[in-house]
């Protein structure tokens, strides 16, 4: 862990810090936006499952709320495929099914008021087809909640490289995700960062980019 903490400090001293601070501020701003903006981000996170964030960003930029909410299935497939995004048929179907969750902002905020951020994540995993713990966490982070971990392959591989986890399973069930998240939380405390901030830095260290 010490080596990773030292590397994080080095990255914080570069111009990457400004880029990450800007991105985190954008997430906080999105928290104040309306249902349309939240739904667009909800669909973006459906696209990120087992696929590149960069191409998901391209699809979101093209479609926006109107495309995600009104475009026919065949057209969704066409546009997702045109952006060289994986699993275009499945992703289009998930977006179509996700339209039943328009109003997701109120749903999430009500769940957080009732059961906290982790309770809201459990609800998303249980009720949204296409959302696992990573995707649900990604969505919550992107709409401004910074106390939750997005354990994608970049983060997990970096944790393994530095001995924070011993080995990586082929898939993450709930028990394993929460076990790794606990280790990530400990690392965030040691680095004096929010979990969202640590995620951004670690993702940059592996991907050499600042996306969302």
Written overview of the protein:
72% of the residues lie in helices and 0% in strands. It contains 11 helices and no strands. Helix 3 runs antiparallel to helix 8, helix 5 packs across helix 6 and helix 7 packs antiparallel against helix 8 (133-142). The protein is globular, with a radius of gyration of 17 Å.
Would you spell out the secondary-structure blueprint of this structure?
Blueprint: H1 2-12, H2 16-31, H3 35-47, H4 53-70, H5 73-82, H6 88-98, H7 104-127, H8 133-142, H9 153-161, H10 174-191, H11 195-207
What is shown here, in short?
The chain is an all-alpha fold and 212 residues long.
Radius of gyration in whole Å, from Cα? 17 Å
General form: globular
- The number of distinct β-strands equals 0
Instruction: Report the total helices.
Output: 11
Helix and strand element order: HHHHHHHHHHH
Percentage of residues in strands = under 5%
Query: Largest sheet, if any?
Result: none
Low-pLDDT residue spans: none
Termini separation comes to 25 Å
Structural class: mainly alpha
Mean pLDDT: 95
Q: Helix fraction? A: over 70%
Keyphrases for this structure?
about 210 residues; mainly alpha; 11 helices; about 0% strand
């Amino acid at each position: 862990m010490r080596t990773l903490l030292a590397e994080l400090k080095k990255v914080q001293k570069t111009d990457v810090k400004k880029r990450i601070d800007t991105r985190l501020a954008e997430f906080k701003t999105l928290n104040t936006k309306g249902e349309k903006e939240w739904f667009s981000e909800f669909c973006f996170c459906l696209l990120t499952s087992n696929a590149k964030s960069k191409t998901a960003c391209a699809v979101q930029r093209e479609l926006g709320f109107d495309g995600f909410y009104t475009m026919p299935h065949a057209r969704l497939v066409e546009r997702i495929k045109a952006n060289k995004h994986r699993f275009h048929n499945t992703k289009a179907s998930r977006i179509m099914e996700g339209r039943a969750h328009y109003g997701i902002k109120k749903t999430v905020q009500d769940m957080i008021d009732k059961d906290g951020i982790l309770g809201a994540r459990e609800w998303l995993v249980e009720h949204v087809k296409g959302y696992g713990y990573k995707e649900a966490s990604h969505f919550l982070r992107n709409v401004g909640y910074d106390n939750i971990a997005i354990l994608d392959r970049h983060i997990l591989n970096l944790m393994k490289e530095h001995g924070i986890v011993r080995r990586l399973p082929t898939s993450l069930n709930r028990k394993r995700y929460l076990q790794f998240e606990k280790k990530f939380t400990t690392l965030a405390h040691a680095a004096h960062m929010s979990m969202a901030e640590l995620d951004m830095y670690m993702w940059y260290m592996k991907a050499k980019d600042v996306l969302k």
